[in-house]
Design a protein that fits this description.
By secondary structure, the chain is an alpha/beta fold. The protein is built from 24 helices and 17 strands. The protein is globular. Bound molecules: 2'-deoxyguanosine-5'-triphosphate, calcium ion (2 copies) and zinc ion. Residues 347, 349, 418, 534 line the site of zinc ion (ZN).
C-alpha cells in the first residue's frame, strides 16, 4: 500500500478530530467528509502522490475541498487548516476529551469560563468546586467526572493507552528512524514488543555509529510535539496525542542484552538475572558478564544471552513471568503460530452487508494475493437490524460465491454468515436454513452487561449449535471503550471440547479477542482456535499478523489453530462440527 496514502489518511483523521472539537458537533458535515475521505484514501490502491486534485475528486468519498487539502499535504507536507487547528487546540486540551462524558461543548465551556485547558486544571476545578458552580452542572456531574478520571487512570503517571493507538505510531517512528543515515538497527522493546493490550510508553532501541542525527530526527519528527529530554544516548519525547517515547542508542555489541532488558517484563528479567547469578554472572542492559572479571559472556543478540543461560529463546509475547523461564529451561515451549502458517481466513465481510466496503470478488482476490488457500465469507445475518442479509440475499450470495469459486479455481470459498447470539443463546434463521450454510461464525453484538451466569449459558448454547463453527470475538470487548461480557471460562471450555467448536482470535487491534488469558487457559485445555481478521475491507486482511501475535501472547500451539491446517483436514473439521 502506498506509504503516502497512510500519511494522508492520518492527517485527515486528525483534521476530523480537531474539526469535531472546533465545531462542537460530531455530526458536522465537514467531520463526516474528512473521515470518509480518510477511509477512501486508506483503501485506495493508487498512490496519491501521482494523482492531480482533479483525479482525487473522482475517488468515491473525496470532495473538491478535501481533494485540495490532500494535494497540499502531498506537495507541502502540511495542510493550512490542520496547522491552524493544531495551534488553537494544544495536545493538553485535547486530552480532556479522553475523559468519558466530556465532549467538545464542555471543552469550550471549561476554556472560556474557567480557563481550564488541561487535565490538571480540570482536576483542580473539580476539587475546589469551581466546576460544580458552572451553570447546568453541579456536584453530581463533578463527582462522575472525577470518578471517570480515576477509573481510567487518566491523570496518573501510569496512564495506559490501548495498543491500537500506539502500534501505528511506533511502527511509523521505527520506519522513519531506520532511514536516518548511519542507523544500523531500530526496534521497539517494552510492553509493545510483548504485545500487551495497553501500553504505558514506547521504548525504542537504536544501534548507530553516530547518535546525534537519529536523536535529532526523533526530536524533529512530525508526530512529536514536545522534547522532554535529550542527551548523548537517550532522548525522550511526547507525541502530539500525548504518548511518551524513549529512544536509547546502544552499542551493537550490547543490542541483544539491551533488547532483553528493555523488553522486560520486569518479572521475566528478574528470573533471568537469578539464573545469571547462579552461574557467577551479572546480567545488565549492556551484557551478560562474569561478575569477578567483568569479561563479557554474551550480549550481541538475544539468542546469545538465552543460550548462555541454558534457555531456549523465549518469544517476547511470552515474557510475562508466567512460567515461561522454567519451560524454556526444560525446552518445553510450544511451537507458536507464525503469519506464514495461516492458510485461510474465516471471518470476512463484503459490501453485501452494510458495513463491508469491498465486493466479494475484491475480497477473494485480495485473499488469493495474500497466499490463502481457503476463505469464509461471513456477512452479517438478518438479526443485525441495520445491515444484516435476509434469506433471499444469502441464497443469491451463495450462488455468486459458488460461481466465483468455479471461475477462479484456486481458493476454496465457504459461504458462511456472522450470526448474532441472542440473549438466550439462539441465533438468526431456523435450523433448516442454517444447515444450508457451509460455515458459521456466531458473535455477541448486544446485551453486554448481563450476569456471568446468563452470559455463560448464552455462549454455551451457541457453542452447542451445530451451525456454529467458531465463536467470533468471544468477549465482545473494545479496547479502551468497552470491557466485554464476563463468562465462566470452564463451562465454555467444556462445551468447546465436547463439540469441536473453535474460539476466534479476532485480529482487529481494537478487539484482540479472545483475550490472552482466555487463549492461554482454553489453549492449555486443548480448545481449538481460529485466527481471523473480521476484515471489512481488503486491506484489513493484513491485520492477520496481529491475531497471530495475540495467539503467541496466549502461548497457543500452532497445531490448535484450525486455519493453519491443510485444506482437507480443515474441511473435515468444518463438517464434523456441522454434523454435531
Ligand atoms: P509500560 O511502558 O508500562 O507499558 O511497560 P514496559 O514493560 O514497557 O515498562 P517500562 O517502559 O517501564 O520499561 C521497559 C522495560 O525495561 C521493562 O519491561 C523492563 C525494563 N525495566 C525498566 N525498569 C526496570 C527495573 O527497575 N528493573 C528491571 N529489571 N527491569 C526494568
Ligand atoms: Ca514501555
Ligand atoms: Ca519506558
Ligand atoms: Zn464481523
Amino acid at each position: 500500500m502506498p506509504r503516502m496514502n497512510d500519511d494522508v489518511a492520518a492527517a485527515l483523521d486528525e483534521l476530523a478530530r480537531l474539526t469535531k472539537v472546533d465545531e462542537q458537533d460530531p455530526n458536522s458535515f465537514r467531520v463526516r467528509a474528512y473521515e470518509k475521505a480518510a477511509r477512501a484514501i486508506e483503501s485506495l490502491s493508487d498512490d496519491v502522490t501521482e494523482m492531480s486534485a482533479n483525479a482525487l475528486t473522482t475517488v468515491d468519498g473525496v470532495g473538491k475541498s478535501t481533494a485540495a487539502k490532500i494535494r497540499q499535504y502531498v506537495d507541502d507536507g502540511r495542510i493550512d487548516k490542520l496547522e491552524a487547528l493544531r495551534e488553537q487546540y494544544p495536545p493538553g486540551q485535547l486530552e480532556l476529551l479522553d475523559v468519558p462524558g466530556l465532549g467538545p461543548k464542555m471543552l469550550a465551556l471549561l476554556d472560556e469560563v474557567l480557563e481550564v485547558r488541561d487535565l490538571a486544571g480540570l482536576q483542580a476545578a473539580l476539587a475546589d468546586g469551581r466546576f460544580a458552580d458552572l451553570p447546568g452542572l453541579g456536584d453530581k456531574t463533578a463527582e462522575n467526572l472525577a470518578h471517570a478520571i480515576d477509573r481510567m487512570h487518566l491523570a496518573s503517571k501510569t496512564r495506559r493507552r490501548p495498543i491500537h493507538d500506539v502500534l501505528p505510531v511506533a511502527e511509523r517512528l521505527v520506519a522513519d528512524l531506520a532511514e536516518v543515515p548511519g542507523v544500523e538497527q531500530v526496534a521497539f522493546a517494552g510492553s509493545l514488543r510483548r504485545f500487551r493490550d495497553t501500553i504505558g510508553d514506547v521504548d525504542l532501541l537504536v544501534t548507530t555509529a553516530d547518535p546525534a542525527p537519529v536523536m535529532a530526527a526523533l526530536r524533529d519528527h512530525d508526530l512529536v510535539s514536545d522534547v522532554v529530554g535529550s542527551g548523548d544516548t537517550k532522548t525522550s519525547v511526547v507525541t502530539r496525542d500525548g504518548l511518551s517515547v524513549d529512544l536509547r542508542v546502544v552499542p551493537a555489541a550490547s543490542l541483544g542484552a539491551a533488547m532483553v532488558y528493555f523488553t522486560g517484563s520486569k518479572g521475566h528479567n528478574i528470573a533471568l538475572r537469578q539464573r545469571a547469578i547462579d552461574r557467577g554472572w551479572t546480567l545488565s542492559e549492556y551484557a551478560l558478564s562474569d561478575t569477578e572479571t567483568d569479561e563479557v559472556v554474551a550480549g550481541a543478540t538475544e539468542q546469545d544471552v538465552y543460550d548462555a543461560l541454558d534457555l531456549a529463546w523465549v518469544a517476547p509475547e511470552l515474557r510475562e513471568d508466567n512460567g515461561e523461564v522454567a519451560r524454556a529451561a526444560a525446552d518445553d515451549l510450544p511451537r507458536l503460530v507464525e503469519l506464514d502458517d495461516l492458510r485461510g481466513d474465516l471471518h470476512d465481510h463484503t459490501d453485501w452487508s452494510g458495513d463491508g466496503r469491498n465486493t466479494m470478488e475484491e475480497m477473494v482476490a485480495a485473499a488469493a494475493a495474500r497466499g490463502l488457500d481457503y476463505l469464509a465469507i461471513t456477512d452479517h445475518a438478518e438479526d443485525l437490524r441495520i445491515n444484516g442479509i435476509d434469506r433471499d440475499g444469502m441464497r443469491r450470495q451463495r450462488r455468486e460465491l459458488a460461481d466465483l469459486e468455479d471461475q477462479r479455481g484456486d481458493l476454496r470459498l465457504l459461504h458462511g454468515a456472522e450470526l448474532n447470539i441472542g440473549t438466550d443463546g439462539s441465533v438468526d434463521y431456523d435450523p433448516d436454513f442454517l444447515a444450508e450454510f457451509g460455515f458459521g461464525v456466531a458473535s455477541v453484538h448486544s446485551a453486554f452487561t448481563r450476569s456471568v451466569a446468563d452470559q455463560t449459558a448464552r455462549l454455551v448454547t451457541a457453542i452447542r449449535n451445530p451451525a456454529v463453527n467458531v465463536i467470533g470475538h468471544p468477549s465482545g470487548r473494545k479496547l479502551g471503550k468497552r470491557p466485554g461480557i464476563e463468562f465462566d471460562l470452564d463451562a465454555v471450555i467444556e462445551a468447546c471440547l465436547a463439540t469441536g467448536t473453535a474460539l476466534e482470535i479476532n485480529s482487529n487491534l481494537h478487539r484482540l479477542d479472545a483475550t490472552a488469558e482466555v487463549v492461554r487457559d482454553a489453549g492449555r485445555a486443548g480448545v481449538l482456535f481460529a485466527i481471523s481478521t473480521d476484515a471489512h475491507t481488503t486491506r484489513e486482511l493484513d491485520n492477520a499478523r496481529h491475531g497471530v501475535t495475540q495467539s503467541r501472547r496466549g502461548g497457543l500451539p500452532a497445531e490448535q489453530v484450525v486455519n493453519t491446517w491443510p485444506r482437507a483436514r480443515f474441511l473435515d473439521w468444518v463438517e464434523q462440527v456441522r454434523s454435531g
